[in-house]
Amino acid sequence: MRTLSMRGALAVLLVVLGVACGGSGTSSDAQQLLQEKADKWAIDQIEKNFHKATTLKDIDLLMSLWAPHATLSIGSELTASGKDEIRQMWLEEGSAFQPGTHLISDHPAYKLKITVSGDRGTLHFECHYVDFETGEMVLVTEADLDVARIDGRWLITNMVGGSTELTP
Q1: 39 Cβ contact list (under 8 Å, min separation 6)
Q2: Is residue 13 situated within a structural domain?
Q3: Of 46, 64, 118, 128, which residue has the fewest beta carbons closer than 10 angstroms?
């Protein structure tokens, strides 16, 4: 009787393990959902580090977010291709990097939009730049980015930025 109970318990354990280890498509669906969440989290880190870099005037952190042959367009007047040109554009034209400015980049999380499709994705966010000394909002911008997983890291491949108006 004891042997029969042990065999029954072992059979149940094997069935449970078979299902948990890929006996159905549910496991791959769960794995795909988990991968999508991980990818969205990694893309979200681009936005967080973007705002951290502009607040701290950390051009090296900002440039670590870009793919080698990325492009950046601000309005219809300014376009840069490649990391060297993009770095120069931020240093020469970016309000946050100008000497004497002390801007804090606030970013409303509820306006963040992220999509993922395999190794490609999109990211949309707003930047609300607040003058550290006066507490006044001095600049409101938005950006639409194309991102890609390159060598295991999510990086910006294209960014189109411009001004926007505050809306709820």
Answers
A1: 116, 121, 149, 154
A2: no
A3: 118
